[in-house]
Write a sequence for this structure.
C-alpha cells in the first residue's frame, strides 16, 4: 500500500487506487472515497490562531508580500509533523508528497528517512 500527503483534495484524483491519502480537515476521521482511504488531520486551535498572527507580522511589519513560504507556516509545520508521525506508525511501500518542501520536512523528522528516501516521490 502507498500513502499520499497532499494539501488539496483535488490532487487525489491523480492518485492510483488503494492509496492512503492524508489531508487537512475539520476533524480527525477516516473515510473511503473513490477507492482511497482518506485520513483527515484536524488542525488544532493554537495553529489556527497563530497562523494569522504570523501572516500579519510578515506582511505588515516585515513588508514581505510575495513570499508564499511564510503563509500558513504553522499549518504546514503541523501537517508535516503529523505526516512524519503516520509514517512511523505504518510501513508504506511508496510515499507521495504534494511538494518537495513537504517531502524534505517530513523525511527530516522520521527515523526511517534513509528507507523512505528511495520510496518517496513528489506529485507534480
Amino acid at each position: 500500500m502507498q500513502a499520499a500527503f497532499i494539501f488539496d483534495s483535488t490532487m487525489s484524483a491523480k492518485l492510483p487506487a488503494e492509496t492512503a491519502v492524508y489531508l487537512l480537515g475539520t476533524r480527525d476521521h477516516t473515510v473511503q472515497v473513490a477507492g482511497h482511504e482518506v485520513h483527515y488531520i484536524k488542525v488544532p486551535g493554537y495553529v489556527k490562531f497563530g497562523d494569522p498572527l504570523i501572516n500579519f507580522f510578515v506582511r505588515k511589519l516585515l513588508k514581505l508580500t510575495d513570499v508564499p513560504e511564510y503563509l500558513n507556516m504553522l499549518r504546514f509545520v503541523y501537517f508535516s509533523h503529523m505526516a512524519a508521525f503516520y509514517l512511523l506508525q505504518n510501513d508504506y511501500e511508496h510515499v507521495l508528497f504534494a511538494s518537495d518542501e513537504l517531502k524534505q520536512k517530513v523525511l527530516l523528522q522520521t527515523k526511517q528517512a534513509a528507507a523512505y528516501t528511495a520510496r518517496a516521490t513528489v506529485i507534480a
Q: What stands out?
A: The first helix runs from residue 45 to 61. The two ends are 20 Å apart (CA to CA). DSSP finds four helices and six strands in the chain.
